[in-house]
Amino acid sequence: MACFCNLFLPHCVLCRYTGMGVCPTHVNWVLDITIAYPEGKPLDLGAIVTGYRKPCKTFLFYRLFPCRDVPRDHEAMTKWLYDRFVEKEELLDAYYKTGKFPVEGFCASPIPPQEVSQDCLRFAILHLFFITSSYIHFQLLSYVVSYFWY
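Structure tokens predicted for Acyl-CoA:lysophosphatidylglycerol acyltransferase 1 (150 residues):
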């Protein structure tokens, strides 16, 4: 999906859905996730990899839409998606003003937003596992290549 900044939606990055097309027949639901970062400052890859940013709370707000409710034609789907982004903007604006998502106004059966805590130790263990796994795979591949090459 191509994304671009929108002056009318300062909290959202608006995406064009050119890759989405219409809901395929084997997909039953469209999952919409709105992410709220502390002070409106999203985590970047450097902060995640190195852990230089203090641990913070990131809030996720999920909504499910049945594919049967998603319009099929291009113009109607474009409007439907833009309406979702306007709703996201309202959600984020309320969150950054009050510290809470206005759950009741945006879903029929509200469940409180889920909190995701960023933990540096967890990231360090995951990176250590990834590096070790990559080393083992490299050694295995080197052995297989050397077996057939020589």
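Residues 3-118 form one domain.
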